[in-house]
Amino acid sequence: MKVSVIGTGYVGLVTGACLADMGNEVMCLDVDEAKIRSLERGIIPIHEPGLDEIVKRNVEAGRLVFTLDAKKAAEFGEVQMIAVGTPPDEDGSADLQYVLAAARNIGRHMPDYRVIVDKSTVPVGTGDRVEAAVREELAKRGADIDFAVVSNPEFLKEGAAVDDCMKPDRIVLGLSDARAEAIMRELYQPFQRNHERTLVMSRRAAELTKYAANAMLATRISFMNDLSRLAEVVGVDIEDVRRGIGSDPRIGYSFLYAGTGYGGSCFPKDVQALMRTADEHGAPLRLLAAVEAVNDDQKTTLVRKAVKRFGALQGRRFAIWGLAFKPNTDDMREAPARSVIEALWAEGASVCAYDPIAADECRRIYGERADLTLAASPLEAVRGADALMIVTEWKEFRSPPFDEIRARLKHPVILDGRNLYEPEAVRRHGLEYHSVGRPAAL
Ligand code: NAD
Question: Where are the beta strands (DSSP E) in 153-289?
């Protein structure tokens, strides 16, 4: 099948590469010239395990091509997948300008029947707006061409995007058009050969399902963070509670970790956008307001603990382990590390940070500053620091050389925002250990 993918970010590039790997002919369009030029030279602009090889393999096979030409892309694929960004507008609602621009481009240039698939995360009713935008462009050129607009929200996780795309838990299709359904089922058939995982529903239900999924996951995290404050006060280890409730199959273990809050390009913006949609429709989601408030607070919990431990932070220096919003990605959009670093700066402290792959992204965001050093290794980051703060749970932080850390720190203090260690084990190395939601925490 011929597929055009509009937008070559995390979702578009991964989807395009995986579809090509299944034997489809894929053309990826972007408006970012630098991105397209580097993709043409085989340079992948994002860090995603396994993506390099898939892109390379399919480019070489001629099944995956990149373009800046919107007309060519609209003409190419019978399936047109929109995977552009939907960043938050000033009021928190999803900014649909890129989605609608992509839709208008398709309407302007499509030569015959098209299935227009919205993979971007968009509020309920956006499919109708995409449909209207395409229809308007067709009317302008007096063309009478049939098309269908399908909502096909994306559930991949950054850091495991290729795997998620190749082996999806479910494929949600929001549509009411038999021809489009047949095409979409055919397109996704290779991804679900052992058992069918397609859920067909109304377009509006598919749009809401995506927000509901992210809002639910964010709620679980905020629930545990809220509970962790109580656990600290009553002398309970939140990790015991996590294991105690996670073992209940009705609850499960995923997304039950207390820590420094959720971040990334999806949860914060999707929770906000869903709240705005609910407000607009006069059905405010009260629970989500609390989820967001708990998370905002949680992002700076390590800094508050540091103030309790050290008093004024003016002139102090903190080692930070982990900058990406989660492991296995270089994405720092809304990363808790940014809240921690900025709160430390606001207190007059400086930072020496280490992250296995997000250092360049950090440099791009903050530029050269006297109060920010990027270390080449975890141990280099702690040298001479007043304390170590752990913000992202990279695997390489799980069994660190505690004695060497103690020897390098000015004060033997670890503030762990991800509860990576058994408190007693760390303390045996002569380190003061403060984590989240555990007895004797600051
Ligand atoms: P991204 O910012 O990484 O990439 C978006 C790309 O679209 C950019 O390269 C941009 O230049 C391009 N673009 C913008 N307007 C365009 C246009 N008119 N024509 C062609 N290209 C255009 O975004 P992303 O993280 O891939 O997210 C895309 C959508 O998928 C968002 O709605 C997001 O919420 C959703 N989503 C993201 C993830 C994730 O983990 N990143 C997961 C599921 C869903």
Answer: 171-174, 198-201
pLDDT for the residue 442: 76
Residue 366 lies in a domain: yes
Are 243 and 176 within one domain? no
Residue ranges lining ligand 1, Cβ < 6 Å: 6-12, 29-32, 35, 83-86, 98, 101-102, 120-121, 154, 156, 158, 265-266
CATH number at residue 55: 3.40.50.720
- pLDDT under 70 in the chain at which residues? 441
Identify whether residues 28 and 136 lie together within a single domain. Answer: yes
Strands lying side by side in the sheet with 198-201: 64-67, 25-29, 2-6, 79-82, 114-118, 147-151, 171-174, 198-201
Look at residue 195 in the predicted model and tell me its pLDDT: 87
The whole-angstrom separation of Cα 354 and Cα 243 is 30
Q: Which domain holds residue 424?
A: 237-434
Nearest atom, ligand 1, residue 122 CA: 32
Question: Does residue 212 sit within a domain?
Answer: no
Pair 82, 120: CB distance under 8 Å: yes
Instruction: Look at the block and give the residue holding tokens 């299944």.
Output: 22
Within-domain flag for 406: yes
Please tell me whether residues 184 and 140 are part of one structural domain. Answer: yes
ipTM of the complex: 0.99
DSSP string, 312-324: --TT-EEEEE--S
pLDDT of amino acid 182: 98
Whether residue 229 lies inside any domain: the answer is no
Residues involved in catalysis: 266
pLDDT of residue 193: 86
Nearest atom in ligand 1 to 32's CA: 11
pTM value is: 0.95
Domain end call among 201, 228, 259? 201
